[in-house]
Amino acid sequence: MTDLLALTAELVDVASESFAEAALVGRIEADLRAVPGLDVTRVGDNVVARTALGRAERVILAGHTDTVPAVDGNGRARIEGDTLWGVGSTDMKSGVAVMLDLARTVTAPAVDVTWVFYAREEVAAAHSGLGELVEKRPDLLAGDLAILGEPTDATVEAGCQGTLRAELTLVGARAHIARPWMGRNAIHRLADVLAAVAAVPERRPVLAGCEYREALQAVGVEGGVAGNVVPDRAMVTLNHRFAPDRTLEEAVAHVRATVAPFMGDGDAFEVVDAAPAAAPAVDHPLLARVIERHGLAVRAKLGWTDVARFAALGVPAANLGPGDATLAHSADERVARAPIETCHAVLSDLIG
Amino acid sequence: MTDLLALTAELVDVASESFAEAALVGRIEADLRAVPGLDVTRVGDNVVARTALGRAERVILAGHTDTVPAVDGNGRARIEGDTLWGVGSTDMKSGVAVMLDLARTVTAPAVDVTWVFYAREEVAAAHSGLGELVEKRPDLLAGDLAILGEPTDATVEAGCQGTLRAELTLVGARAHIARPWMGRNAIHRLADVLAAVAAVPERRPVLAGCEYREALQAVGVEGGVAGNVVPDRAMVTLNHRFAPDRTLEEAVAHVRATVAPFMGDGDAFEVVDAAPAAAPAVDHPLLARVIERHGLAVRAKLGWTDVARFAALGVPAANLGPGDATLAHSADERVARAPIETCHAVLSDLIG
Predict the structure, then answer these.
(1) Residue A188 near chain B (CB below 8 Å)
(2) How high is the pLDDT of residue A303?
(3) Buried b (16+ CB within 10 A) or exposed e, B24-33
(4) pLDDT tens digits along B265-307
(5) Domains (range + CATH), chain A
(6) Of A215, A281, A219, A263, nearest to A243 (Cα)?
(7) Is the ipTM of this complex over 0.95?
(8) Which of A71, A99, A147, B212 is the most buried (most CB within 10 A)?
(9) Bridge-partner residues for A206, per DSSP?
């Protein structure tokens, strides 16, 4: 069996900071092209490899090739015992190593498999290589179930919550500060809005056994003209994370309804960023089977991840990968051998 | 009698934007030095001229020489009928013209008189030429009553309200926005503070027949770390204008008490700018006499003015000058002959 910690170290040593991933992508592409029976397509810095065995079902295994910038000299892999240090070791070259090894070795899977290695996940969503594939070659992403190898410490993080950001602008009327009754203070108007936002009861819906936990938070506030002027404008930015039992439209309506009682003429409510939630895929028979067989822990994914891109294409998706997400992006980023081997075994079983 | 509109036009034509006042100051200084019996002292771009007649009382007549920048070609004086257009015509070269003419013509006043022409009033208080005199030569500013020639449309604006700005910083704890219960949202904490500030009842004390009107307003607010982070810091800037029956210390205590119920560990309250109020001087016998004789309208001054610098030196002070303050600093700045002549008559009577 392949030494997966060593393979991960090999991949760590091919630097692949976002937008500078060509060397690693080239290496992966070459490996895939050497596998008989794989149909390999390169789209920009993304590589997709597909079996065409005529199976009843198709599983997509996907991972991103980029990393955040190296920090404090962690650009090179360092192994001590069964632990590997280095940027990307957790997020997510250990997951990529598992997938690359399975692509090379499981040549007659029980399902058809699509391997997706995509670029630029660690930067703004607009740059995502997976987004590029969705736009240019959605046909390559067709399938019945998708697993993303993001670090979950070999547990299943089911679906993901949706996210939206909205800017609420409240207007007023300027006046000299010595005569505030001639104006209307837009900053004072924030009081009711912020109180209402903070008072929204927390929804914790349970879907397919996974408890989600919604959030509505003010993440930015600004206002003011000058030290001696009653301000005529104040803005608050709200961030809402919503469970997969709500559509994006329903989530927007919820936020709007929360602030609507305090809005009037001239005020504005604008959604500036939004992405839908993804339903948990854990009741999909293929995934449910390996969860049971391997006794995998399952929990709701509260943050937004690329599983939502698959969900939007109609492909149920979940996160499952080695590595501890809390170590990602840190100078101390590292991964242990055991969860890498667990993931290898689970995914091998999933497609085997 | 001097044509005061023409004299004002002469002064408008000697440009004197803040920090570029030397030409006008030189002109005024030369005029004053030509008057027998005046003791003239120049301190930087400030000129002080004093009689020394051994009178029982001393009146200070003060005005600033600078203007805001010219706009839309109003840097040159233009007279049509009895109206003069031009930058500074209202604020306050008409007042300076009245004072300069009186200094040259009233050579045997009934009181001793100190004429103060000072620099840089139209910029930040820290640059004030009157502040420079207070610091370097407070002896030159001794007296029993001070009149500032700021534009009041020939009414008396009595004393002035004090002003203070304070910054209240509220802290929280950062967390990823998908897990807000791990943190504490500092922006949400603003809700109670802003509601309390907006709910402070308005005090309108009447002092010496003048009704003041206090104000407490949020003039700036800021907070936020990133679109996906529960913010750990929010700041609101408060501006308080307070009536002359409160000391600066009492005013600070009032603002602090308003926000104190909502403050906790790590929060900060800092006074960043403050100036005391000035009591109305309208009950001073010299001023009361001309108010009655000339039927002058009297009202409380709500904004802060340099009268407070005199009040701080123990000199009762009021604003009285020609010109409509609402026209100051506008492209359409102008002054009419009548209020200039009224002020001339009133001040002549005051010192005569």
Answers:
(1) yes
(2) 84
(3) bbebbbebbe
(4) 999 999 998 999 999 999 999 999 999 999 999 999 988 889 9
(5) 4-159+278-351 (3.40.630.10), 162-275 (3.30.70.360)
(6) A215
(7) no
(8) A147
(9) A211
